[in-house]
UniProtKB/TrEMBL annotation:
InterPro entries: Antitox_Xre, Xre-like_HTH, Xre/MbcA/ParS-like_toxin-bd. This is Putative toxin-antitoxin system antitoxin component (TIGR02293 family). Transmembrane segments: none annotated. GO terms for molecular function: DNA binding. Residues 105-150 form the Antitoxin Xre/MbcA/ParS-like toxin-binding domain. It holds the Pfam family Xre-like-HTH. It comes from Algoriphagus iocasae. Residues 39-96 form the Antitoxin Xre-like helix-turn-helix domain.
Length: 153
């Protein structure tokens, strides 16, 4: 009788790391490091440029209205901005940090789907509905980290 192989044949793609996207990659900030808190303070105080916002907008797939709500400005104001103020720059950084974490875990399309569907752990709210408040962004990061570390919900 032939001996059966005990090897499981699964597609390798299921185990490949999706990407190693950083916040600096998303915001196209090469001349200022964003790794250290004091460096971030200076970047936020100077204001993030339009190209950082446009890059986040393109990567996230969010429209002007959604991003305007998240940043606490009107969509018209958002379309006219060339350099963002301190508070808006900090919020753009937080969103980029969330998207870097999410895309590195889920992949780009997977994270977009995750952001757009109601989750039981969030009281059947869509993650996208929580990005207008810093605490909501922190909550979403926490949810992703729980998934990364296999913490049962």
């Amino acid at each position: 009788m032939a001996k059966k192989s005990s090897k499981v044949k699964e597609p390798a793609v299921a185990y490949e790391k999706t990407s190693n996207l950083s916040v600096s990659d998303i915001l196209h900030i090469d001349d200022h490091p964003l790794d250290e808190p004091f460096d971030r303070l200076e970047v936020f105080r100077k204001g993030l440029p339009r190209k950082s916002f446009d890059s986040l907008k393109e990567l996230s797939g969010m429209d002007y209205n959604t991003l305007a709500t998240a940043l606490g400005v009107s969509s018209k104001t958002l379309q006219r901005k060339e350099v963002f103020d301190t508070i808006q720059s900090e919020k753009i950084y937080q969103l980029a940090s969330l998207y870097a974490l999410g895309i590195n875990y889920f992949g780009k399309e997977g994270f977009k789907r995750w952001m757009d569907r109601p989750l039981f752990t969030l009281g059947n709210r869509k993650p996208l509905d929580l990005i207008d408040v810093s605490e909501g962004i922190d909550l979403l990061k926490s949810e992703i980290m729980k998934l990364q570390y296999g913490i049962a919900i």
